[in-house]
Write a structure and sequence with these properties.
There is one protein chain. The chain is an alpha/beta fold. The strands form two sheets. Strands 4-5-3-2-1-11-12 form a seven-stranded mixed β-sheet. Strands 6-7-8-10-9 form a five-stranded mixed β-sheet, covered by helices on one side. The protein is globular, with a radius of gyration of 19 Å. It has a single domain, classed as Metallo-dependent phosphatases (Purple Acid Phosphatase, chain A, domain 2), CATH 3.60.21. Helix 1 runs parallel beside helix 3 and helix 6 packs across helix 7.
Length: 275
């Protein structure tokens, strides 16, 4: 949650939100954290759900089919929420760009649009967009984007085994690629440029803020007069953005929340208090 100083605090999970924003799930890849996303869907409800791009990874599926039951369950859960009355808005990204052929259509209660304007409970208006339209590499050098995607997938494999060893020694999860993003100068500059560009697009649209995805880096900060919000991803950090009933936005760091809850549970074989 953001306080008046713009700082983030760890939110309490609530069963019902006004809106929920999720992006970069990358269903169809081994790195997708579909099980964690399903747990989020089971424990929370929202009046409006925005799917802010790269929900399905069409790039990866073209190279080989990978679709376990959990990935199918995510889509079924979304359709079920739509049937029960939630408004579900799907804004395709670059990895699921095939869905852009169906802009303006409605599939099982899921609206497919290129971008949306979300009005918060307090009257603020936000441009909701994936953000790949403003990534020069994706737009003008697709082969570099595909190479980068392969490198990222390789890093995730390395990250998996790295954390497997860490767990054996009792250490918690550590994301190598997320750490690298904040340490490598070019990556930091790219994130900063992306954020500035999206803020400028929000200004051109005449809105108060922008909610986007694409770069797998959850953030919530002011850039000039614009409120910049990035949903992050459900591959590494497992983050989502929620709007409370009063119009307050916050980042749900779902993997951290689940890890803390599990750590707080009594371990089997532990000493129990006498009755």
């Amino acid at each position: 949650m953001t306080n008046q100083n713009g700082r983030l605090s760890m939110p309490d999970v609530q069963p019902g939100y006004r809106s929920l924003f999720i992006s970069d799930v990358h269903l169809g890849t081994r790195a997708s954290q579909a099980d964690l996303l399903l747990e989020l869907f089971r424990r929370t409800e929202a009046d409006t759900i925005y799917l802010v791009g790269d929900i399905i990874d069409g790039w990866r599926l073209k190279g080989g089919w990978f679709w376990p039951q959990a990935h199918n369950d995510v889509l079924q859960k979304l359709l079920r929420k739509a049937r029960k009355g939630a408004r579900v808005i799907y804004i395709p990204g670059n990895h699921d760009e095939f869905a852009r052929d169906y802009l303006g259509h409605n599939f099982g209660g899921v609206e497919v649009v290129d971008r949306a304007i979300h009005e918060a409970a307090d009257g603020r208006r936000f441009l909701v967009i994936h953000g790949d339209q403003f990534d020069v590499v994706v737009r003008h050098a697709r082969w570099i984007a595909l190479l980068g995607d392969w490198a990222y997938e390789t890093a995730l494999v390395i990250n998996h085994w790295f954390n497997f060893v860490r767990r054996k020694f009792g250490f918690g999860y550590f994301s190598i690629s997320a750490w690298a993003k904040l340490k490598v100068k070019n990556a930091v500059n790219f994130i900063g440029d992306f954020e500035e560009t999206l803020a400028q697009e929000a200004e051109r649209a005449g809105v108060d803020g922008v909610i986007c995805g694409h770069i797998h880096h959850a953030a919530m900060r002011r850039i000039g007069a614009v409120e910049y919000i990035n949903t992050g991803d459900f591959v590494e950090s497992c983050t989502a953005v929620v709007e409370r009933r009063d119009g307050t936005f916050e980042i749900l760091r779902w993997a951290d929340i689940v890890a803390r809850e599990r750590a707080a549970q009594p371990q089997d074989g532990g000493v129990r208090a006498a009755a």
